Amino acid sequence: MSATSVDAPAEVDSVPVGAPTVPARVLAPGRSVRTVVAPIVFGVVFIGLWQLVVAGFHIDPYVVPAPSAILAELVDNLGSVTSGAAHTGLNALLGLVVGTVVAVVAAVLSSVLRILDLLAAPVVAALSVMPIVALAPVLYTLYGASVETARVLVAALAVLIPVYVNTLRGLRQTRPVHRDLMRAYAASSLQQQWALTLPTAAPYLFTGLRIASSLAVISALVAEYFGGPIGGLGKSITSAASSSDYPLAWAYVLGAIVLGLVFYCVALLAEVLATRHQPGART
Known about the structure:
The protein has helices at residues 22-26, 31-57, 67-76, 78-112, 114-129, 136-143, 149-171, 176-184, 189-223, 233-242, 246-274; strands at 11-12, 15-16. By secondary structure, the chain is mainly α.
């Protein structure tokens, strides 16, 4: 009687089963210090060289202002930068929530109904190549320039594609052998979705969410360039640049960068908390 061998766990998309997730690798003991310290050191060196080049070559502010001038404007106008960041951040957050909910629901339906998946494929392909921010003037015409609806919709459309694609991919990663095992235990379809499909798809969902978090801020910011109510970092950047106050414009850009990082870090933290019980989430 020949001995039977136990096969090694199969790999999905060249990623070994049980491999640490991105947050686990980034936040793993020993690596977290390098992950945080290395960008800080690089940033300090880069800003120092930037200051030396601008001061040494007497570069005009309209080309690129010195970091010291940007910091001074940021300190002097901290209230305005904070207010603009809150305004833009609220639109980005609403767009992120709306886009994520629509994308997840559409991905679940597409994973269940093959015909819906086929119908949605060309629409997703068209939306993925369409310049979403170019819709801002059209949406302002539809909903009016005195409300924030157009900005929220622009952010939601930008969020929709990455979340939908990644979630749908995650929903398809469940192995047939696992489904057969759930059926052998007489698990209902709802129990299979809750205990098997959704946990398998969670890392993919949060990957799309991390990508979409930054896109939501960028889209809401750019949509402000095309009109709408006064307020927000986009309006402040264009106003400062049009009045030739370039250090102030860069101070608002710095506020937008910080806002985008906050969104990304919150999405990363949510992924860490939601997938901490996943296999390989800890190293």
